[in-house]
Amino acid sequence: MHNEIDRGREDPGVEEIIDETIDLEEYAKLGKRPPLAKGYRIRVNGESFVVAEPNPTGRAILTLAGLLPAQDYTLRVKLAGERPRKVELDERVDLRHHGIEKFKALPRDQTEG
């Protein structure tokens, strides 16, 4: 029986966690999927914020950006090569999804378009 760990092969069920904050916009520009990380730098209305949770809710993103009360805003996520998509307040956003560039929040009473 062989008890030594083969360090040359990765266990497909285990993913390395990067001990740093990564910039989602940079990964989107590189066309890479972000790894698990200590933090994720996101942009909301052009301002940078760091999120530790890889799956925050729309409400958590708006709260982090100081856009309160969150229910007074509409949040949209911009994915590389796609049109912005609405994010509901209680919807979770997977920040590790390939191509997330930034977020845009508009007051609900503002006419969009």
Describe the protein's topology.
Layout: E1 17-23, H1 24-30, E2 36-44, E3 47-51, H2 58-64, E4 73-79, E5 85-87, E6 100-107
Parallel strand pairs: 1-2
Antiparallel strand pairs: 2-3, 4-5, 4-6
Please characterize this protein's 3D structure.
The protein is mainly beta and 113 residues long. The protein has one domain: Ubiquitin-like (UB roll) (Roll). It contains 2 helices and 6 strands; from the N terminus they run βαββαβββ. A 3-stranded mixed sheet has the order 1-2-3. The chain has a 3-stranded antiparallel sheet with strand order 5-4-6. A hairpin with a 2-residue loop joins β2 (36-44) and β3 (47-51). The radius of gyration is 17 Å and the shape is globular.
Briefly, what CATH class? Alpha Beta
CATH superfamily: Phosphatidylinositol 3-kinase Catalytic Subunit, Chain A, domain 1
What is the first-to-last residue Cα distance? 67 Å
What would you say the CATH architecture is?
Roll
List keywords for this structure.
113 residues; mainly beta; 3-stranded mixed β-sheet; 3-stranded antiparallel β-sheet; globular; disordered N terminus
Summarize the structure.
It contains two helices and six strands; from the N terminus they run βαββαβββ.
